[in-house]
Each structure stands twice: as C-alpha cells, then as structure tokens.
Amino acid sequence: MVLSKTFSESDVSIHSTFASRYVRTSLPRFKIPENSIPKEAAYQIINDELMLDGNPRLNLASFVTTWMEPECDKLIMDSINKNYVDMDEYPVTTELQNRCVNMIAHLFNAPLGESETAVGVGTVGSSEAIMLAGLAFKRKWQNKMKAQGKPFDKPNIVTGANVQVCWEKFARYFEVDLKEVKLRDGYYVMDPEKAVEMVDENTICVAAILGSTLNGEFEDVKLLNDLLEKKNKETGWDTPIHVDAASGGFIAPFIYPELEWDFRLPLVKSINVSGHKYGLVYAGIGWVIWRTKDDLPDELIFHINYLGADQPTFTLNFSKGSSQVIAQYYQLIRLGHEGYRNVMENCRENMIVLKEGLERTGRFNIVSKDNGVPLVAFSLKDNQRHDEFEVSDFLRRFGWIVPAYTMPPDAQHVTVLRVVIREDFSRTLAERLVIDIQKVLHELDTLPAKINAKYSDSGNEEVVKVNNGNLVTKKSDIETQREITTIWKKFVLERKKMNGVC
Prior knowledge:
globular; PyrdxlP-dep_Trfase_major; Aspartate Aminotransferase, domain 1; Aspartate Aminotransferase, domain 2; 502 residues; MYOD Basic-Helix-Loop-Helix Domain, subunit B
C-alpha cells in the first residue's frame, strides 16, 4: 500500500517530448523498466514532471527554509556523500555537530559550567527530536514509578490542542495517552492554568509550544512553570516541562531576549528546535537539547564499535546525511547573534507590512500576534458567500501557495489563511501578495455564492443554503451537483457574451 496518492492509478507509460531525441521508448509508471536509458533522457523526463511542482519561494504554507547562500549550497554538495553515522570516518563532521549542540545549548541558557559540554543531538527534524525527548521523559517516569512500587503502564502527556501532528504520532507510536487542552474562540494556544489542572501522577511532562503552527503565538512557558512548580510542591510530584521550540527557538533569543521560556526556568528539562526553519537551513535538520546529563537516561544511549571507535548514538534512525549538519554550523558562524537578529527583525517588519496591507482591505480579521513567529494568520470577516478555502484556491492562479485550515477543538468553527514570512519573503513580495489578494476578492465578489451543505447529527445532508438564504430540502446529491453546474454554465456564458470580440 502506498500511503500518498499517486497522480494516476493506472500504469500508463511516461514519456518526455524533449527526451525523444535520446530515446523513443516509453517507460512504465509503477514498474522498474527492463532496459537502461541514456542519462540525458532520464534527466529530461524527471525535469519535465518537476516543472509542475509549486515554486518553493512562493510556498507561504511552509516554515521550512527555501533559500541559502551559494557558498553554503557548495558546502552541502561537497558533503552530500558523507554518512553522518560514520563518526570514526568523518571525525570533523562529528566535531561540527558537537559544536552546534553546544552553541544552541548556550543560546537556550543551559546551566553549563566553564568546561562542561552540553547534552544534545542532531536529528532529521523536530519530529524525531520530539520523539527522543518524549522517550526520555517516559523512561524517567517509568523508572521513578518502578522505584516507588507503583503502576507504570499508563503514562500521559499534557499539551494544547494546537500541537503539531508529531506529538500525536509520539503518543500513538509509544503508547502514551495524549491529554489535550482544548482551544477557545480568540485564544488559540494552550491555557497554562487548564494544562496544570489536567496534570496527574502519571503525567510524564507538559509540552509547551514556542510558536504555534496555527497562529505563530508563543505560549506562556513562564506562567506554566510557576503554576506547575506550585502543584509539584502541593502533591510531591516532579512533573517537568518540554518546550517545542521548533519554530520559535531561533527567533526568541535574538529579538525577545528578555522572554523567559528556556532553561532559565527550572522545570524546563528539554527543548527541541528545527534548524531547517528559522535556523535557516534546508529541510532535514533538527536539534534536541537536554538541561543536564541526568535528564537523559543512560539506557537510551546505544554504543556501537563496528564502524570503528566506540560511538554513542541516540536516534530513531541510523544513517543520515552530513550536509545539513554542516550547513547549520555554517549559518551559526556566518551570521552570529547580529546576523540572526537582522534576519528575524527583517522578517518581523515584513510581517507587519503584510498585516497592515490586509487590514486596509477591510475584509479580514487578523488572528495572529505581532510578537511571535513572523507570520500572518487571518480570516474573512464575512465568509457567507465565499470562504477562505476559495481565496486559497484562487491565489494559486498567481503562483501563491497559501493554506486555509480550520482551528482544532473547540475553535473548529474558525477558518483561517496563513502566510509564513521567511528570510526570502521580501517587502516587495508582501506588497504584491496584498494586491493579488485584492484581485481574488474582487473576482470572488462577481461570482455566484457558494452552496453550503448543512448536516444532520447522523452526518447526512438535509438542506442546502442558496444565494437568497432560503433553506430548501435536498433531494439528492446528483441534483445538487446539477444545480451548481447550471449556475456556473449560465455565469460563464454571460461572461463570454460580455467579453466577446466581434
């Protein structure tokens, strides 16, 4: 079974027009071909198909870095054939990874002595980092419960309903109950008070997010720490905190240095961050840092010697490319505090430009915050005739990829669009996007209103809402489809008559 959908379900052959000068034989789509083809033909066939992908620079849905300097691109290509796991063969690469871990640990104010090294590891991304941190919390909790002679088979973790899917994966894959604090209208992050109320003796940790995917907002880790400290004293528990700083970990230290969210708070035991987001590296690198050695159980660390010298490893995968580790080190020494600060401040300024441009249209509510990850999350003030999903769809005509999505429970009635401001998103692009959004809104205003289906408790469609707001009993799905088709055919014919040239 293939988990992702393929473009075509049939095994129709693929063929490139330009590659025909090298080969005329078509290729099977889902089977390895019997014969070899020239390298030029293979390149052209693949390149032709990739042309239909979106432009990464215009993919405003992604937090992931889409541009790096040519010098770093060269370093990446020069090291792309190195397997990071071969530490004995590539000792310098290992040294660069260790330097990155220590730099990031100091950035997050880890309590390290003068000659003390940090505890952390590079990962494929924040998803793997979260899995490793979660496993450390689970094992420490299990060891503690065993020592007390108590049951240790029902661990849970407390998060907000706004967490990334990687937290749900961790809970399901490693058999941990996920207790989510529901959101509410106007408050789209985890409420620290409600989170602490849900903590019990089986809670392995509370996970806070520094930069929610939904609206970029930083959760109040300081308040969470203070409330949890109080509860721990009252109950005798020692429930810790993990900070998912995937998006905000390379932002807050540079433009919000006074914000307390990291190892300055005593209950924060581990932090993950995505190097491939605002760490400014291409996709494929994350980091997890532990407060002290005691926070990472020794039994989770494996020691191998069949690649050379003794090598400690704590990862879910084994082989991994070295390129992104080297790229991260390049960015850290190339930019330094000053460079990262300049990039983040520029992103924030461009975010304000976009936000103010959207506000001037008078058509949107802004649901993101000025302080946080530089993004703009916004919703239509009136989505009765046309909704955010239509705006997202129409923007693709201009090349923009802007996601539309509904909020998690209990704010699922709110639909938003989100634009992530990355380093390569300039002020000119921000202004251009506002202009294109205005064009989309103008075009949607000329179109017939969408037809909304209402549902009964059983999930079956009962009535449809037409333009005038009257409710009409739905007879069948095919009749609804015919009605929509008739409306659009009439509309298109009228436009052709208006735009026709004699």
